[in-house]
Amino acid sequence: MNFPEIESAHFSGAVPRRPFTVVRAQGARLWTDDGREFIDCSAAHGWANVGHSHPVVTDAIRRQAETLVALHEGAFNDRRAAWMAALAAALPGDLSRIQPANSGAEAVEAALKAARFFTGRAEIIAAKRGFHGRTFGALSATWNKKYREPFEPLVPDFRHVAFNDLAAMDAAISDKTAAVILEIVQGEGGVYIGDADYFAGVRRLCDERGALLIFDEIQTGMGRTGKLLATEHLPILPDIITLGKGLGGGIPMGAAVWRDSLGTLDAGIHGSTFAGNPLACAASLAVLRVMRDEQLPQRAARLGEWLMSALRAIDSPQIREVRGLGLMVGVQLRGRVTPVLKALADEGIWALPAGSTVLRLLPPLVISEEDLQTVVEKVAYCVKT
């Protein structure tokens, strides 16, 4: 059966497909219908932090599916309660008020609505090169005009300023600002890391002017950067965080989490049919357990340090810079990344771009040292050919 032909006859066209039909995955490996095998350095676009088909997660999903799959938030549930308690216990400070969602973009929507509700203000300030999702509010906070222009006009009262530029932020935040939303590491924008002093300065400005600080942890969260949250690398706490991707272990899930001191939303002003469903909560509860028991954030810190050191040792004029945090790594090239991605695929490595000139590596946190060594060898080969 020609699966690409069947999908091409029916799909919307919005998401380009690679010329492979992936039918199975385990750990950090993918297999296609014709028997090809790949080392997954995309973590399935960032969600497979605990790897594909982790037995603890799949067992939790199976057992919950036999009991209760979906239940609206209008009733209490044992799995949701256990998940909320476990997530709040794992997060820093008093980040404990949780609004479940079905994706990272939905979590951003909830965070933006919460910021406007709690402050009574409208303006949202985001960063250039930032990416927060494709729904209308999240897209309004996203910088890249390629994503924005086809759908304008977007939500009003959004502004963008230079990332990692405290003077620009100082000039932007006013008594009209509801919130500033930032990524600690800009993933889609090129794997750029903000300075600790910058984030501390933004925190101070928000406090002085009554604005809330939102950290988008959709890609950086769940152990990716060497801590459960990238926030934990900093000496400050945001008012709201957004989670997604790795939170559900492959089951669609997101969450906006804010500080307990902010309080709660008014009843009935936000909600979702499937958000916080028992199946997703059971999967996420298992993910949190795997993170703790297998010490995956610590593993990401150790392997990420080795990976970046090994990539920096590659002698190639094509590589301009290697940057990252934990197992969130960007290789800045002097030319376009597309030919390198295609060459890597030919060598059995599935990787991602981050803009037009950055090779992005987001391997599952369970990837073996041997597979990472192979990745480095293949990158070295592909940037020299």
Structure explained in plain terms:
The mean pLDDT is 97. The protein contains 13 helices and 17 strands. The chain has a seven-stranded mixed sheet with strand order 4-12-11-10-7-5-6, with helices on both faces. A four-stranded mixed sheet has the order 1-2-3-15. Strands 13-14-17-16 form a four-stranded antiparallel sheet, covered by helices on one side. The chain starts with a helix and ends with a helix. It has helices at residues 3-10, 43-46, 55-65, 78-90, 104-119, 136-141, 145-148, 166-172, 196-209, 278-293, 296-312, 338-346, 369-382; strands at 22-26, 29-32, 37-40, 95-101, 123-127, 158-161, 177-182, 185-186, 192-193, 212-216, 240-243, 254-259, 319-325, 328-333, 349-350, 352-353, 358-361. It is an alpha/beta fold and 385 residues long.
